Fold NAD(+) diphosphatase.
Amino acid sequence: MNFVFRRDELLVEEASSVLPDLDACVRAGVAAEGLQPVWAAPESPARTVHVEPGVEPPHGYAFKKLRSLFGVFDDERMALAGRAYQIAEWARTHRFCGACGTATVRVAGEFCQRCPACGFSAYPRISPAMMVLIRKGDSILLARHTTNAASRYTALAGFVEPGESIEQTVHREVYEEVGLKVGNLKYFGSQSWPFPHSLMVAYTAEYVSGDIRVQEDEIADARWFGPGDPMPDIAARISIAGSLIRAHLPAGWDAP
């Protein structure tokens, strides 16, 4: 089982989205020894690699956006593809020591690139991020992000900063993005989100005080939605944002 990535695209058969065999990998310019095991055990059947942006797919294959394969791959295959992407990205970005610039060496039996000169060790990066759905009576707060203003409405989210707990991040991000105070945080769930290496940790929270004041460089629109309001286009069910919102829909809403 081979995962060959070109940036955030995965090499698959054009018609069936089946992963490439070793012969197809070789035709894409990937040597067998260049494929990294997706699991720490060297005998792992799943292998992964990043290729250069200019690499063209072999005949009958195509590079497809990893996001576009949600719903094409089953959940297990999609989770494995997400892991493979993160491992390949880690291997690609840690070929040289970040401290002294020496070429690193893979440590057997673990995901570690170690510098033979200064001993610096680099492990796969995981970036924790919070997500929170704020409730006010029978209403929920949903927002569209400035980076993609035509996108669906979703819950607020933000990355954890150094020295913060995830709960502290919730309070800071909510106040920065929409100017509200919240309380009664409750854990909902988590999801690995490999774009490129996030771990989304989702909560609900209750509105405490404040009026919506959007952070314009982050939020295009934010508003309360409740019973009787038209239902906006919301985050897809495949993401934890979609699950979080669907678990707390206002009365009368029925999301697919």
Remarks:
- The chain has a mean pLDDT of 93.
